[in-house]
């Protein structure tokens, strides 16, 4: 028994089996080292300012000029601070030159940011009578984003190995396809975006699942289930919204968009439906195939009951996740409205109507995905067995 343990302290014994949890296989270790190397290169490139088209500046010094309390008509208090920033230009025409600007911000930082010494910022610079002036466009945050992506990929590798890399690859491909569709949409009719996504999303679904699982029976069943489930979900949402002529949906947050806002909203509804349905379909299909594999004599009725029990377990949490993920992004705006005397009803209708509609349609998709996935699994498993016979 003593040989199976490593004694670290008189009161602490750690088994070798426990230590195996923290061991990393060689292939994972190589992938992690490669990921760290690529992240380091990307991080290094983010500080090679001459490669940026936008002008970048570094805040060399910060001097606080004034600080005053403010009180609005609703009794909200805030502190307004005035800063004098000395900014050194790091690239483009005015490289190595400096200029001074005044920055005003409040403690809430709703309209402007508080800047600190050694912050990197994107700036717009002009020259008048041999004197530079300019303004800050936004903080330069890409190096933080690179670090977060690196951490994300490393965790994917640690937890799922090569499947994590394939998942990340599918994420890049799908992101590129969506970006390409949006670029194409700029040069097409204002009404075509929904149709572009309707024809492209089935390809994206099949591509994502094939990259992660290969073109297996599980991939086929999940692909069919996702396409059917998301199609029915989107159709239901589109019919209801069209019948009520978009009443109750406020598109004010899209007022700066030069394309019809309802087209953009319906496109986002379609994408959200696919995401919700795919998640549930994969869970149901994977579980049912595992059940069928371990008990090859199971009847279709028992398989259906097993799928229903799995669906009951995941339906509640998934629906809550759907609502939380959509509504959480609107919390800051909700608080601003409420703190400025707006009623909850008005705030809900203006700020949350679109997010609530997306969450509601996505939740309908989650519910529909359970019976659809069960039925498709039963049908394709039966065909597979008949083919083998």
TrEMBL record:
Q: Please tell me whether the keyword Heme is annotated for this protein.
A: no
Which top-rank group of organisms is this from? Bacteria
Q: Does the keyword Membrane apply?
A: yes
Annotated keywords: Membrane, Transmembrane, Transmembrane helix
Transmembrane feature ranges: 29-49, 143-159, 165-185, 192-215, 221-244, 264-289, 321-338, 350-374
| Database matches in PANTHER family | MEMBRANE PROTEIN, MEMBRANE PROTEIN-RELATED
Its recorded name reads YibE/F-like protein
